[in-house]
Structures are given as structure tokens and as C-alpha cells.
Amino acid sequence: MVKGQYYKAADAYSLASAFNNSDPLVYAGRTHALFAAGEYMSSAFYLDRTLRIFGSYAMANIDMQAMIGDAELITKRLEELEKIQKQTESSELLFLQAYIYINNGQDYKAINAIDQLTEQQPDNPAISSLKFAIDKRTSNQ
């Protein structure tokens, strides 16, 4: 991913999941690669899958810049994601936004996004895991 080969990285994570489909890190890696590639709905899908398998993953502090390798790209992708989410009002994209926000140091935006999601889908375990992590991280500051 650091080389900017995001689809290749996503394919590698896909292959890895064929060998171990219960490893949440395989899905987490695919989440990041697809986000970097601009495949937001797919990225959100794999984030949901990650957190349904291992909800505690939401507590990990992910260094998005180290993971993706390009701070400008993260900013660009997040701007695109925000625009598309606003147009479509997609809860899946809002979920991805909340995750990216909290791991990109945008705590206030993460809180707003996760609060909206919790109202919409109070029984979604992936959203609950992410909300717990966001609440925990932001209350410790």
C-alpha cells in the first residue's frame, strides 16, 4: 500500500481471506486498501465485517498515514467520501467516515458521525463497537 498499489493490496488481502476467513486483520487491511483506492462502499463493507468478527479492533489506534503512505491522498479520499455520503445519505459511508475520522485525529467529526449512526441503527454490533471505541478514546483526552 505504501507504494500506492491499492488494488494489488486489496487483492492480496482477498487471497489471504481465502486461507483464513476468520482473521479480522485480513478484512481490516482490505478496508484500508479499498478506502485508499476510492472504493468506499466496499471499504465500508469490509470494515463492518472486521468489527463483526472482532469488535475490539475498533479500539486500535490506526496511523492512517503510515498505513496508506500518503497524507494528501487520505485528505482527498475523505473529502470525496464526505461529498458522496452527503449526496446519498448512505449510512454505510457515514460508518466508514466515523472510522476514518477517529483514526485521522478528527475526533469531533467522528463523534457526530457515530452519534447519527447510533440513532439510525442502535442494534448494529459493528456500529456499537465503533461507538464504544470513539467514546472511550475521546473521553480520555
> Which structural class fits the helix and strand makeup?
mainly alpha
Number of strands: 0
Beta percentage is: under 5%
Rg over CA atoms: 14 Å
Distance between the termini: 31 Å
Query: What's the CATH topology name?
Result: Serine Threonine Protein Phosphatase 5, Tetratricopeptide repeat
**In CATH's first tier, which class applies?**
Mainly Alpha
**CATH architecture field:** Alpha Horseshoe
**SSE order, as H and E?**
HHHHHHHH
Q: Largest beta sheet, briefly?
A: none
**Average pLDDT figure:** 93
Looking at the structure, what is the overall shape?
Answer: globular
Number of helices: 8
| Tally of distinct domains | 1
Quick summary:
With about 140 residues, this protein is an all-alpha fold. It has helices spanning about 5-20, 25-35, 40-55, 65-70, 70-90, 90-105, 105-120, 125-140.
Please, could you describe this protein's structure?
By secondary structure, this protein is mostly helical. The protein is built from 8 helices and no strands. The longest helix has 18 residues. The model has no long low-confidence stretch (mean pLDDT 93).
Helices and strands, with pairings:
Elements: H1 6-19, H2 24-37, H3 40-53, H4 64-68, H5 71-88, H6 91-103, H7 107-120, H8 125-139
Helix pairs in contact: 1-2, 2-3, 3-6, 3-8, 5-6, 6-7, 6-8, 7-8
What are the key terms here?
141 residues, mainly alpha, Serine Threonine Protein Phosphatase 5, Tetratricopeptide repeat, globular
